[in-house]
Each structure stands twice: as C-alpha cells, then as structure tokens.
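Limitations
The structure tokens in this dataset are predictions for the assembled complex, not deposited experimental models. Users should treat interface geometry with appropriate caution, especially where small molecules or nucleic acid strands are included. An illustrative entry is reproduced here so readers can see what is and is not provided.
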Amino acid sequence: MINIAILGYGTIGSGVVEVLSTNGESIKKRAGDQIDIKYILDLKEFPGDPMMEKIVHDINIILEDSDVMIVVEVMGGVEPAYTFVKQALLKGKSVITSNKELVATHGAELLDMAKERNLNFLFEASVGGGIPIIRPLNQSLTADEIVEITGILNGTTNYILSRMSEDGLDFNTALQNAQKMGYAERNPAADIEGHDACRKIAILSSLAFGMQVDFEDIYTEGITKITDTDIRYAKAMGARIKLFASSVKENDKHVYAMVAPVLIKASHPLYSVNDVFNGIFVRGNVIGDVMFYGSGAGKLPTASAVVADIVDAAKHLNKNIWTIWSSKKLELTDINQVQHRFFIRVEGNSLTVKEQISKLFGEVEEITTEDVVGEYAFITSSIAEQELNEIKSKLNGILSVIRVRF
Amino acid sequence: MINIAILGYGTIGSGVVEVLSTNGESIKKRAGDQIDIKYILDLKEFPGDPMMEKIVHDINIILEDSDVMIVVEVMGGVEPAYTFVKQALLKGKSVITSNKELVATHGAELLDMAKERNLNFLFEASVGGGIPIIRPLNQSLTADEIVEITGILNGTTNYILSRMSEDGLDFNTALQNAQKMGYAERNPAADIEGHDACRKIAILSSLAFGMQVDFEDIYTEGITKITDTDIRYAKAMGARIKLFASSVKENDKHVYAMVAPVLIKASHPLYSVNDVFNGIFVRGNVIGDVMFYGSGAGKLPTASAVVADIVDAAKHLNKNIWTIWSSKKLELTDINQVQHRFFIRVEGNSLTVKEQISKLFGEVEEITTEDVVGEYAFITSSIAEQELNEIKSKLNGILSVIRVRF
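Predicted assembly:
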C-alpha cells in the first residue's frame, strides 16, 4: 500500500479523490500497488464528506508521517505551495502538482531537489489539463531537437474566440457567456490578458529546450483588443483567430517566445481546436509535426493527469525519472527582432490611405469583407516587430494589428 | 557507451543511423550515455556507405557479443524477425522494433520474455509512425479506463481518400497518384484492404484493454468500394469518409473492434486528419477525449520513434518498464450485434424505391446531392449489422453502404 496526502480539497483535489475511487482497481494494477489517501490538507472542515476523517489543517502532520510517500499539491498559487512542496521533498516524499505558477517559477529548483534525493517532482497537470504533454516531451520526443512548440493553452480565451467566430458575438458578450458557463473567473484578467498561457508556455519551453525560460521574459498580449470586425475579416480570409503561446527556435539557434492572438488557416493543425479544448503543436527536426489535443481544464481531465503522475511516482519510488530542465537561463531573442506578417486595419479607404500604406509597407495584400466600410485592411510582408512599431508611430487611425501565421 | 545493433538496413534502419548521427549530442544527454552502433545486420553489402564496416550477415555475431545491450529490429515481417528477437531477449538484450506484424502476432509473449529477464521490449514505431501513442497509453493514460480508441492509422488510404475528396479523383486515379508519390506500394492490398490498419488497432486495443486482441478477430473492410459518388454525397452532408480502425467498449463491458470506412463530420477530432497524416483518438472514462496527430509513416518520423525507444531502453537497462498486455485473449463482441447508422445508396429514385425502403428500414433520413440522378440515398436509424445484412438480402440494386459516425 502506498500512502499519499493531498494538499487542497478544492475542485482538483476532490477530482483526484473521485478518480482514485472510480478507477481504483485498474490504477492498482498499473501502479503495482494500492494507492491510499491518508490525509487531505485544507483550511476548511468537510462535515459529512466521505473524506472528513482524513482532513487535517496542519502540514506538519503530513510532513512528519513517514508513511506518506507521495504528496499531491493541488492548492494553486506560489505560496504556501512552494514552502510545502520543498518541505515534502526534504522529508523524502515525492511531489505531484497541477500548479502552473509554482512550476513556472520554481520548476528547475524543485526538479533538482527531487533528483538529488532520488525522488520525483511531476507536473503533467500543470499544462493542458488532461492532455499528455509533459511526459511525451520528456520521454517520447527524446530523439528530436525541438524547433517549435505552440499551444492553444487557455480554454477560456479559446472558448471566447470560438463564440465570437461561430455565434458572431462581440468580445464582452462572449466573455459574459464564458463566465455564465463557468469557463471564466469573475476576474478574468489572468486568462484574457494571456498570463495563464504565458506560464504554461514557459514550462513547455523550459522542457523543450532544457533550460530555464522565465515567464517574465515572454512577450504577452491577450485577446481583449480582438473585435467582431476582426473576426469578420478572418472569416473572409478563411482564417481563424487563436491565442497562440509559442516558442520557436530560429536558424537552429535563437529562441523567441510569445503569447499573442494570431490568424491561422485550416492547414494549421491547431485550426480545429475550438471551444474550451486545448491543443499543443510540436515540431521536431526529425519527427516533423505532431499535435496533442484534449480537455485543457476541468475537474476530471485534470485529475486524470494528476493521478497518472501518482501512478508514475508509485512505480518509481526511490528512482528519479530524469527530466532535463537546467536552472541556467535561456536568453530569448529580443521580441523587436522577430519577424511576422501582420494583418492591419486602418481608418479610411483604398482611395485615401492606399498610397500612404504602400509608401510605409511596400507591397501589401489587400483584404476586403462585405459589410465593413470606412476602413482599409491589408496584410504586410514579413517585417520585424520593431519596424512595425516604427511605422505605426507614423500612421494614424490604426484599428487593429494581428500577427499572421500563414 | 551503450552498444546497439540494428537488424535491417532499409529505409527505417538508415533513418535510425541518420537520427543518431544528426541529434547525437542531445540524445546522449537524454539517454545519459553515448549510443553507439556496433553492428548492422543485412543480407546486402553497402560498399562506400559510412556504415559499411559495421555490416554483418550473421545474426550470431550480434547475439554472441555481450557488448550489445540493445537490438533494434527494423526488418519487418514475422520471420525471421520473431526468431531473432526471441534469441536477442534470451541473450539478455533489450529489443526495440517498428514491426507491426511481429508485435500484433507475438507482442504479449515477447513482453513477458522481456519482463522475466528485467529487459525491455519496446515498439513505439509500430503504430502511428512518429506519433507518441504507445508510451502515452502505457504511462500517461494510467488513471483511466479506456472506453474507445479509434485511429486513422494508415497514411496511404488516408491520402487516397483525401485526394478523392479534395481533387475529385476516382479511387483508381487516386491510388495511382499515391503510387507515383511513393505513398503506396506496387501491391497496395495490405493498405487499401485495411490489413495494415487492422494489425495496428490490434496492438492499440491490446494495450488499451490489457488483454490479447487477435487481429484475425477484427472485422476488416478496406476502401476499395468507395466511389467518387460516395464522396459527393459526403460533401453534400458536410462530412468526410475516413478509414477508421476502432475498438469500443460498450456498456462498460463488451469490446467490439473493426476497420471500416466511416462518415464523420467536422465535430469529430479526426476530421482534420488529412493526406498521409495519422491521428489517434482516445476516450477515457475520466480524461474525456484526447487526440494524437502526426506523420504516421516516413523514414525520419518512424526513426524518431525508434530512437526514442532506444533512449528509453538505455535509461532502463536491467529495469523493465511495465506494460500491461496479458496473453489472455479478449473475446470481442460478435460484429453482427454491433449497431450503427448506415448510409445507403440504391438504384432507383424516391418514387420507385422510397416505399420499399421505409418498409424495410422504418424512418430514414433522405440525402440528396446535385448531379447524381437515378439513385436514392439515405441514412438509417441505428441498427445491428446482422439486421442490415438481412435487409440487404431483400433489397436489389444496392450501390453503397457506409457506416455513419455522427
């Protein structure tokens, strides 16, 4: 029997309890032993809950109990999670977490601590909910040099963009819709400003390139500026707007990373990732393109990933599963040097602004859509962000700028 | 240094050599040691080839050399691969293979032999080329009971169906096209009759359900009967025809398995898997739906999967990676009992056959498309295969029957 403790009895914590109970038999077979929940740490009491007798309020009860071999941290936030996780590792317990802030901020250090002690620090559920991506990156794509990793990593924003595109809603209505459905928090900033996706791509990039990618270094732009008019143009082009979180290695050397809305067409593997689903696209130098798709959040899918980590930790007691994520910082390319094609809308019409646009941008591809008048829309050739910014300062009446990935 | 031997210097064998050389540095880091090719077994000589001095013609040289810790079998076919692989395991060497016939036929036995000896028998490349699917099934989806596993597992047939759909080609022209592109063999039977996909779904089903699924038991139907008229109807419905290889657990109990063309709509995650790409859809009872996508064949993607297995075997010398695939046979549901909706085309028109159709099938959904006359097309309600067959014997002029998955 392998005793575990769960830190946090919220949505994911109770999902873990449910999964361990629903699939107990097959989990036992796969882990090679019975997994038993000995403690659940939470501030609250849960009178009448089947787990009520396992609830404790003091982390030290868990830390001091040498029967507990695996600690499952599903509280979220950096503190006190970070302190608790470190203490657990120091006490010789492996740790599983679903906590993206913790992993993005302290992943390299916690992995090192686990390795030094022949323990494991696993975090499959921290990115992409139930989608297996951390373990495939670590253990399946080992023959490749990763050239690109791009994800639709935030279900809330993907849902909002899908509703805008499919139901013709404007941003605010789609957001309210998402809040009603329980897909968006009352304070949705972390999602719609791109911060959630930013932490997740920081984790994936650190694993893909084996070095620390600080999330603070990643250029991050949310979806709050996307309007229903942008969506109308996207449709006219046969394209969709998606919030991409990307790390790309250029010329086999420099890596740039960014979170931003982009226009993509049906030929992109992430084009069909709609609603609250997540998708992660990986390009390797020998495997070519692969894509992983599934529920990026939700109680049971996330709990499924947490429990899969518990099974892995149970099979690897006292044996570290090697993960390459050095604490050495990866210096990202200055975002100003990164080149893209840009979709731009400006006030005016082809008579009034066309000449100025071609002076500033050279040859552009004009985009038109029915019903939209009083503006001029086009796609530039590939130019650096810096160049774009310089041109923007000379151009009045800019309505929209979206990067193009086709 | 870890010495390996490669059995077979064909497309995949030379791909493995190329990947090990191209990405040698990062592979060394991930494997924890240098991987060195000591021998390559092949019937032919390769004068002038950089590997020419490593070529041997006698398997015993490899078997008797205790320096060789990992044997990579990429010859294909059951014999002599089966004999060589068994001998290698008996000599204490871990084995990697890309050989679907070998794994489908003898997988359970070879896994047992490896486990008894604390060795590994790994076969990621046998299904889905470069797509990580075997390892995710074994190690990532461990918290779930698998309810369904469905793949587009054959690139050749998917390419043919894509060309028929996108370019309006008929079957024979699309097949010749695939042969010209090198995507189809001169004798394409194994692909177009569904046998290749059948062996692959047998492997995936055995892993998903933990018991032996014999490929001979799987109902298998190829794509040779699909016509451009079927495709025209599919388009009229907003659907696509795909060759699905499926195992489905019904009522939490009985598993049925089949390889057959099906009609799907855009809401299915495999809808966008086109051309030579493969996709594998997995439904678990807690994770929900996940999908894996990538190159299902090709020299480098397949070699990438083989090398990832080499890295895993190198990290687990003398430590078996647990795989649940018992030799106990899984009895599949009699295909006659399986229910589907069916798309059916018959000669005639709504005036001449409609009454007979509703007598035989009850209420049906009529399907029409422009340009096609002289026939009547419809979708039945959900009925058992047996019932369909009985009705078919009473119905003249059947032009086409395709299962519907929406």
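Some entries come with short summary sentences. For this one: Residues 43 and 299 of chain A are 20 Å apart (CA to CA).
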